[in-house]
Amino acid sequence: IGAALAGERVHAIVCHWPSRFSESPARERAGELVRAIKDSIIAQYPGSSVIIMGDLNDDPDDKSLVKGLGAKRTKEECTADGDLYNPWWKTLRDDGVGTLKYDGKWNLFDQIIVSGHLVDGDRSHLQYFKNEIFVRDYLIQQEGRYKGNPLRTHASGTWLNGYSDHLPTTIYLVKEVK
């Protein structure tokens, strides 16, 4: 999807990669495919920004994102417009926070990854500012066996009147106003 955002060309690639029931190579191929799409966009529209987002069914440091997609851990590693920065490494590994829990352990499958153009430090055009997981009490199970997990819509055939087994993620972009 290509659109104008703050007067700039921004392309969004929205994904839902194969589930964990599939083996890792299925998600690695998804990462390679998305990388090829991103490369085609950058080649056709140099200087534009690309945002990749969705339920990737892998954590930021899994092979599908690191090797398949080629997403980098730090902004400093992004030296070209086509490089990809994944800010969720720190969120999961350093801060210990994720978007879903499995067997009591946080995972962070719901990611928003940005192209190098959005982290080059030039605030005359859109720049990545920060990311966060949208967490509110009403989105979290408050009691019982799954206390502290995202409040699901249903589980084991029981309606729980919740929202999702995943928490939403957000990024903030800024641009200098003149």
Provide structural commentary.
With 178 residues, the protein is α+β, with helices and mostly antiparallel strands. The protein is built from three helices and twelve strands. The chain has a six-stranded mixed β-sheet. A hairpin with a 2-residue loop joins strand 1 and strand 2 (8-16). The protein is globular. The model has no long low-confidence stretch (mean pLDDT 93).
Layout of helices and strands, plus pairs?
Layout lengths: L1 E4 L2 E9 L7 H21 L4 E7 L7 H7 L1 E2 L11 E2 L2 H7 L5 E3 L2 E3 L2 E6 L11 E7 L20 E2 L2 E2 L9 E6 L4
Parallel strand pairs: 2-3, 4-5
Antiparallel strand pairs: 1-2, 3-8, 5-8, 6-7, 9-12, 10-11
Helix pairs in contact: 1-2
Task: Offer a concise description of the structure.
The protein is α+β, with helices and mostly antiparallel strands and 178 residues long. The protein has three helices and twelve strands; from the N terminus they run ββαβαββαβββββββ. Helix content is 20%, strand content 30%.
Key structural traits:
178 residues; alpha+beta; six-stranded mixed sheet; two-stranded antiparallel sheet; 3 helices; 12 strands
Head-to-tail CA distance between termini: 28 Å
Number of helices: 3
* Strand neighbour order, sheet with most strands: 1-2-3-8-5-4
- 3D shape: globular
Question: Sheet with the most strands?
Answer: 6 strands, mixed
- Which structural class do you get from the secondary structure elements? alpha+beta
Q: What level of helicity do the residues show?
A: 10-25%
Low-confidence stretches: none
What is the string of helix and strand elements?
Answer: EEHEHEEHEEEEEEE
Please tell me the overall pLDDT.
Answer: 93
